[in-house]
Design brief:
Shape: globular
Structural class: alpha+beta
Strand order of the largest sheet: 2-1-7-10
Number of strands: 10
Order of helices and strands: EHEHEHEHHHEHHEEEEE
Helix content: 25-40%
Strand content: 15-25%
Radius of gyration: 21 Å
Largest sheet: 4 strands, antiparallel
């Protein structure tokens, strides 16, 4: 009988790269178009599945910190140390002010795994949609290289090759990976069983106890739709709480949504150019919505836009 896996610990915090400039960029306008299209009768996705604008971030890792203040203090200290190390790794000068990011396309984790999704389905049963963050400097270089090619085929090949080779060494990827690895070395990032790929040392001398686990590759993503929040909202309703919002489902909550037309519509969309991601934060799991006072037209208490509570942050 195979050994029983230990239960997943309760996730309490996450490490994120955020932008204080996002709402002043072109992103909110494109996001509004996406929201309208997603919740239209054609797509039938409930509004509760669309992530609020105030929750947008790039996750670098999730954490399961203990109840005591000591674990949180360790994460805060690792943040301060890790940002300095990551800046050096990415070659960021003191006056950089952050990482300039291009937000483009509409991606799914289903399409990254051979187009298969929940229960073997593809985009017909999609749970998560996200916008791809690209390093603005790299994106500009790839576009320039493709424009200089002699044919459309050559341009496509050049762009693909340039993107693959440059992305791994971009400031965005280098900084994010270095900071995540620092938190991993402090045993602060939780890795799921699927993420815990065994490390096989090249030689016996490499097998030292100081080596951190080899992490799975980091996929930076800006989530704009997540089916899990619809399930949570429905659970709140059954318990008598929550806010009565959302549209009709084309599928059951556990089956995901048919996102084929949405992905086709936004797959090449540039949501925003040159957005400055200028802050790294340790945040509490679970979004909150503060009361702004009064009762709305729907008879519900008026609440501010949802956001996450920041425990500590470092400006870049």
């Amino acid at each position: 009988m195979p050994p029983r896996q230990s239960p997943q610990p309760k996730l309490t915090h996450f490490l994120a790269l955020t932008s204080t400039r996002l709402q002043q960029s072109a992103f909110p306008g494109t996001f509004a178009e996406f929201h309208t299209s997603a919740t239209s009768p054609e797509n039938g996705i409930p509004a509760a599945a669309i992530r609020p604008l105030g929750t947008m971030h790039l996750t670098l890792g999730v954490m399961a910190l203990g109840a005591g203040a000591h674990e949180v203090d360790r994460a805060v200290q690792a943040l301060s140390e890790g940002v300095a190390l990551a800046r050096e790794k990415a070659g960021m000068g003191d006056g950089a002010g952050g990482l300039r990011v291009r937000l483009v396309g509409l991606r799914t984790f289903e399409s990254r795994s051979g187009g298969r999704g929940v229960g073997g389905a593809g985009l017909e049963r999609c749970r998560v949609l996200w916008v791809e963050p690209q390093d603005s400097v790299v994106a500009a270089a790839v576009t320039s290289a493709a424009a200089g090619s002699d044919s459309a085929t050559a341009a496509g090949d050049t762009a693909s090759k340039e993107a693959n080779t440059a992305a791994a060494t971009s400031a965005l990827h280098s900084f994010s990976t270095a900071l995540r690895n620092h938190f991993l070395s402090k045993d602060l990032i939780y890795l799921s069983p699927r993420e815990r790929a065994p490390t096989i040392p090249a030689t016996a001398s490499d097998a030292t106890s100081e080596q951190p686990p080899e992490p799975s590759s980091l996929t930076l993503h800006l989530t704009v739709l997540n089916q899990v929040y619809t399930r949570e909202r429905n659970s709140q309703r059954r318990g008598g709480g929550g806010h009565r919002r959302g549209g009709k489902h084309r599928t059951k909550d556990s089956e995901g949504y048919d996102c084929r037309s949405l992905v086709e519509q936004f797959k090449d969309t540039v949501w925003a150019e040159d957005v400055l991601f200028d802050r790294v934060e340790v945040m509490k799991m679970g979004e909150v919505r503060d009361s702004v006072g009064g009762i709305g037209d729907d008879g519900e208490e008026r609440l501010a836009e949802a956001h996450y509570v920041s425990v500590a942050y470092v400006d870049l």
